[in-house]
């Protein structure tokens, strides 16, 4: 019972943290895109990942959103 309650409390606290991380990550990507020196294929991929991350964020799928945005940031070197 205690472990279930502890897990529920952790998830309640962790979910808003991920929700707040998504917009910050999107802003980092947007700023990096302004000065990015990537090939066309990588630039397209970053934009697709960023769009997918925003879509997932808006759907409330914050873990998946953070993962997509992290892929985009990795391609940008941030």
Would you write up a description of this structure?
The chain is mainly alpha-helical and 78 residues long. The chain has one domain. It has three helices and no strands. The longest helix has 34 residues, at 2-35.
Task: Throw out a few tags for this protein.
87% helix; single chain; mainly alpha; 78 residues; 3 helices
Structure, briefly:
By secondary structure, the chain is mainly α.
Strand residue percentage: under 5%
Beginning-to-end CA distance, first to last residue: 42 Å
CA gyration radius, whole angstroms: 15 Å
- Relative helix content: over 70%
Q: What is the count of β-strands?
A: 0
Query: How many alpha or pi helices?
Result: 3
Largest sheet: none
H-E string? HHH
User: Which consecutive residue ranges, at least 5 long each, have pLDDT under 50?
Assistant: none
Structural class by sheet pairing and helices: mainly alpha
- Global outline: elongated
Average predicted confidence as pLDDT:
85
Task: Return the domain count.
Answer: 1
What is the strand and helix layout of this fold?
Elements: H1 2-35, H2 40-58, H3 62-76
Helix pairs in contact: 1-2, 1-3, 2-3
